[in-house]
């Protein structure tokens, strides 16, 4: 299995020791910008704080879907909707969101994370076998870009 090389948790203010990391930026109401240095937890935890590259997230999807991370039964359990979130097809599995289409088939599996000055969204679309990963150093950067990617790829719900 290809190892994930650029993902880890780190204490701030220590800059992660891999290239490609960026400061997060917050857009202030007056149009100015500031870093998110004092707006996020110093230590990452269960609710976020991991540093990951888009390439490593794509590797994670690949390994998960090929049953290289978990056995068949556990992978199936992970990818099964367990909690209905709303009447628009949104469900929660074990650690990921599951969006069903109008026919109640899985449209996408996705994970996301947002903090002041940083956002992340990644999805796998089973019908097209497309993986999308967006890492942004702005609070709202990932969500809007993900929607555009879905429209351009023809996989929007």
Keywords:
alpha+beta; six-stranded antiparallel β-sheet; two-stranded antiparallel ribbon
Question: Can you offer a commentary on this structure?
Answer:
The chain is an alpha+beta fold and 157 residues long. It has helices at 54-65, 72-78, 141-153; strands spanning 8-9, 25-27, 33-35, 50-51, 83-84, 90-92, 97-100, 106-115, 118-125, 130-136. It is globular. It contains three helices and ten strands, in the order ββββααββββββα. The strands form three sheets. A six-stranded antiparallel beta sheet has the order 5-6-7-8-9-10, with helices on both faces. Strands 1-4 form a two-stranded antiparallel ribbon. The mean pLDDT is 81.
In short:
It contains 3 helices and 10 strands; from the N terminus they run ββββααββββββα. It is of the alpha+beta class.
